[in-house]
Amino acid sequence: MTNDPESLCKYVQCINPVEEEACPEGTFFMAGIAQYGCCGACVQFRGLNEACTGSIHPQYCGGYGIYGQSGDCSDPWRKLRDLRNSIEENLYTQDNVVRSSWCGYNIACGGSRVCEIDPTAKGCVYIQRRYDEARQPGSGLYLDYRDDYRWRPTCTKEGFFTEKQCKGPLGEQRCVCVDPDGNRLYGDAFSYQEDLFDSMNCKCSRRVWELQQAGEKSVTLHCAANGNYEPLQCEDGWCYCIDPATATPYGSRLPEGAMDRLDCYNKTLVGSQYLSDARASTTPTWNCMI
Q: What's the predicted TM-score (pTM) here?
């Protein structure tokens, strides 16, 4: 019965279930990973120079598999089962933390079965690493008059670019919205633009990008100049309010003709062209890679 999680899970009571935000630092919440694949847990992966059996990072065997010297991978259809098999069930169960024998994000399980940095890897963490190496005293790899255009990007714990990237000296920064690979999206702000700059989160621009990647041909979300959601949103003939800071809708949904009754309606800001002006539907060409 243990080979059929769907049949087994109705008999399993999950231990200390947690939300993603509650996982300890250095761990990742993953659903269906503990207790025979029935429960979620905070997973701790192996670090550099630790023994390993695979890697979670998508670059290595699609994120689930064994990466060898020949570059071959295990059968991708086995990926979830292989990940479950890498879990040491009884580690830190009091905190709902389990340990995997796989390497963490951005590192590979090499031919010697040890977690190591791949010198050919690309992406946000790679750029961080190159920048840090260049700024080491005596490296000779960073010269102020030549390399001041370079900056250290901010990355998610999975190693992708965060929605908002800022560059430039303090007080003169410009922030832009980007996709997970660092390509420029709609939305930017300079430090002198105060409110736009301080509140910038790029949630709207990133959501537009996600919908376009999913094949949506016509995206009607309204994004502010800094990539945030505009407070008033309309789609399919209905309008509603959304909190730009959290991207959470609130209040009632009303027909377009009654949008002026919504708490977030502002005649001066909306204007007469609102329904035909869905910004952020195009992606400017720009890239964070250095």
A: 0.69
